[in-house]
């Protein structure tokens, strides 16, 4: 289902349903859950940052079955999280109807704003219903949790687990696991580098306002190659053309955009010295794999989405109009996305240099 269609359906049908369905009464704790369903619509980044909370659930309740209801564009992430037993996609065939017929002890809606996922929680038979109470969707939960824009998103997901006795804590790195089959597949693709260390580059983003631009990535890649390293572009099929442009004429330079699965991209990242990327799902994928990153933030809220720790460099402009993104929505920019376009190649190279001493 197209994202724009889904958003329109949520604004109309979702708002209607959460007001028509009976409100869920507050719930009290009980015995340890034997089954938990987490609902995670959206993109790759949210799915990655939810993974530490899933692992914490499995550690707290080791015999519990943990399922995820996702969508096709982010479902592969949960294949990198060994605590998840089953992944269903609500936008695939009659899957949603089958999920609605199941029973779980706990259902947790990890969506931050839209209402349709809250309706699904209300309809699934369960003892405990948990979700973010950001609007009238709070009526669908026995435990409605506050949501903050200035709180790191991985910690926000932990807030959903408070009623289960789980609090945020140090996250062991890496928290994602690369399948062995993906490692073998990628070893062949990387063999042409002759074992030379490389920096991974991701030029893509879900919206234009988050893209730094192919020309700047090309200049960056050339500088990296001049330093004696290789530049490897990662991404999906939509990034293939810009990837070709970035590495054209560079030796060694490699464009793997669109040539691997998400697990394959994770395998590539796991071998990289570091990743340079804008605010993207691939950025969070690298974080989950324990890979150092240089990230470029424009309209996105760095306090909520930027990687944490001394292995990550965050570059941003502190303009009066940025960040402007709220609940995943970024308005059209009247000033040409200056917040990211004014970041220079020299600044990014300094970030790369600052991590090189601790790179692999």
TrEMBL record:
InterPro entries registered for this protein in UniProt? Glyco_trans_9, LPS_LOS_Heptosyltrfase
Question: Which parts of the chain are coiled coil?
Answer: none
Any GO MF annotation of the entry: ADP-heptose-lipopolysaccharide heptosyltransferase activity
Record's keyword annotation contains Glycosyltransferase: yes
Q: A GO term (biological process) for this protein?
A: lipopolysaccharide core region biosynthetic process
Q: Where are the transmembrane segments?
A: none
User: Which keywords, in A-to-Z order, does the entry hold?
Assistant: Glycosyltransferase, Transferase
Q: Pfam family of this protein, just one?
A: Glyco_transf_9
Looking at the UniProt record for this protein, which Gene Ontology cellular component terms does it annotate, in alphabetical order?
Answer: cytosol
The molecule here is called: Lipopolysaccharide heptosyltransferase II
What is the originating organism of this protein?
Answer: Geothermobacter ehrlichii
Q: Provide the taxonomic classification.
A: Bacteria, Pseudomonadati, Thermodesulfobacteriota, Desulfuromonadia, Desulfuromonadales
């Amino acid at each position: 289902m197209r994202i724009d269609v889904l958003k329109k359906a949520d604004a109309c049908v979702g708002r209607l349903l959460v007001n028509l369905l009976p409100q869920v009464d507050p719930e009290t704790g009980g015995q340890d859950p034997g089954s938990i369903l987490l609902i995670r619509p959206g993109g790759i980044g949210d799915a990655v940052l939810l993974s530490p909370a899933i692992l914490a659930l499995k550690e707290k309740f080791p015999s519990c079955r943990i399922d995820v209801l996702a969508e096709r564009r982010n479902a592969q992430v949960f294949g990198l999280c060994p605590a998840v037993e089953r992944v269903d996609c609500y936008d695939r065939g009659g899957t949603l109807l089958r999920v609605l017929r199941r029973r779980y002890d706990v259902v947790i809606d990890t969506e931050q704003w839209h209402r349709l996922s809250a309706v699904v929680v209300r309809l699934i038979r369960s003892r405990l219903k948990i979700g973010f109470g950001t609007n009238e969707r709070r009526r669908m939960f026995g435990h409605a949790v506050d949501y903050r824009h200035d709180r790191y998103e991985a910690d926000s997901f932990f807030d959903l687990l408070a009623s289960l006795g789980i609090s945020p804590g140090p996250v062991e790195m890496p928290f994602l696991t690369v399948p062995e089959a993906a490692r073998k597949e990628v070893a062949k693709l990387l063999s042409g580098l002759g074992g030379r260390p490389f920096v991974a580059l991701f030029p893509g983003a879900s919206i234009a306002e988050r893209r730094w631009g192919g020309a700047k990535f090309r200049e960056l890649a050339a500088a990296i190659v001049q330093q004696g390293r290789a530049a490897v572009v990662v991404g999906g099929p939509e990034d293939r053309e810009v990837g070709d442009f970035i590495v054209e004429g560079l030796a060694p330079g490699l464009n793997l955009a669109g040539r691997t699965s998400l697990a394959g991209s994770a395998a590539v990242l796991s071998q990289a010295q570091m990743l340079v990327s804008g605010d993207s799902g691939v950025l969070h994928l690298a974080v989950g794999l324990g890979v150092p990153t240089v990230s470029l933030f424009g309209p996105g809220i760095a306090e909520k989405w930027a990687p944490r720790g001394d292995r990550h460099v965050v570059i941003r402009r502190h303009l009066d109009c940025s960040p402007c993104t709220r609940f995943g929505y970024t308005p059209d920019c009247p000033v040409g996305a200056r917040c990211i376009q004014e970041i220079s190649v020299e600044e990014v190279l300094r970030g790369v240099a600052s991590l090189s001493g601790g790179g692999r």
